[in-house]
Amino acid sequence: MSRFTIGLVGCGVVADWHVDWGYAHLTDLVRLAAVCDTRLERAEALAARTGARAYNRLEDLLADPAIDGVDICLPHHLHAPAALQALAAGKHVLVEKPLATTVENGERMVGAAAERGLTLCVTEQYPFSMPFQRARDLIQSGEIGKLVTIRTHRVGYLGGVWMRDGWRQNASIAGGGMLLDQGCHYTSIARMLAGEVEAVAAFTSSNREDWNGDDTATLILRFRGGLIGEALYCWATKTSNVGAECYVYGERGHLRVNSGAPALVLYRPDLPDGRQVIVDQPEHGKLFARMIEDFALAALGERQPTMPGTEGLADLRVVMAAYRSARSGQVELV
């Protein structure tokens, strides 16, 4: 019998990932008891294949005393309102990235969870990804020597189902553009591998006619201790090859970490052919089960969460400092 009961809010494509790659593999731990969407037909469709109850009002889902936690898969600008409402109802909260669209709302969410003794976690996959975990271990063990610089990037073209509902490509609704949507992801990588970011210099641009807001951004990051790094985001090029998601350079060599295969490669002059594949295949869908499991066990008091709200807030602070820099033309402190 499942030990933790969850209501899922927002029944779009991301919710399908949570169901198919997460809840379907965790039936001994969690039960998806309810789903909610303002488009009732979406909720009913997801309910029909999961056995959950369908709601079209969050208030009705939160009134169900059998629900222990809420999984929020809503558009970005609705994360904070829904999370604060769920926390006020005494529910633990798992929320998709970004945590919120403003630092102030993120702080309210973290504060509300702490005040009520509830668990607040962010659905952020990289801390749960074995290639990135191994990369962190290799860095910490000195395999590439003292860090020199780090580069993260996400480059491609967003289309298809992601444009279906109109909010993601409209920064005035979503709270930000490409930088907000993907910046928290890749800030999470940078912080995981290189430490805390203390200052940002950034530029953003808009290139697509069907996009309202930034679809391209470049950031220079200064980390505590003086390390500098770079992040590049672009959803305006129909390239077929986006390359690695992260390069970490040290005095002795470097790491290439990728969501494709090979997933983690160590490059060093003393290695045969100058390289060694550390992790061959990526993990993709497995990460959703790990994130949901971690949230449920944290809410049950059995472990400290890997990706608590405070981590999501730290990522958000970097992204918001980048937006301030893009507007001011100055280096902005995080």
What features would you describe in this structure?
- The structure is a single chain.
- This protein has 334 residues and is an alpha/beta fold.
- It has two domains: 4-124, Rossmann fold; 127-285 and 317-333, 2-Layer Sandwich (Dihydrodipicolinate Reductase, domain 2), CATH 3.30.360.10.
- The protein contains ten helices and 15 strands.
- The protein has helices at residues 13-22, 40-50, 58-62, 79-88, 103-116, 130-140, 171-174, 178-194, 286-299, 309-328; strands at 4-9, 30-36, 53-55, 69-72, 92-96, 120-123, 147-155, 197-205, 216-223, 228-234, 246-250, 254-257, 264-267, 275-279, 332-333.
- Helix 5 (103-116) links the parallel strand 5 and strand 6.
- Helix 8 (178-194) crosses helix 10 (309-328).
- The longest helix has 20 residues, at 309-328.
Could you list some keywords that capture this structure?
single chain; 334 residues; alpha/beta; Rossmann fold; Dihydrodipicolinate Reductase, domain 2
Q: Give the N-terminus to C-terminus distance in angstroms.
A: 45 Å
Q: What is the CATH H-level superfamily of the largest domain?
A: Dihydrodipicolinate Reductase, domain 2
Q: Radius of gyration, rounded? A: 20 Å
What structural class do the secondary elements suggest?
alpha/beta
The CATH architecture assignment of the largest domain turns out to be 2-Layer Sandwich
Number of domains: 2
Spatially, the strands of the biggest sheet line up as 14-13-12-11-7-10-9-8-15
What is the CATH topology descriptor of the largest domain?
Dihydrodipicolinate Reductase, domain 2
User: Could you give a short account of the major beta sheet?
Assistant: 9 strands, mixed
Count the strands?
15
Could you report the average pLDDT, rounded to the nearest whole number?
96
Helicity range of the residues?
25-40%
- The H/E string reads EHEHEHEHEHEHEHHEEEEEEEHHE
Give the overall shape.
globular
Contiguous helical run count: 10
Name of the CATH first level of the largest domain: Alpha Beta
Low-pLDDT parts are none
DSSP strand (E) fraction? 15-25%
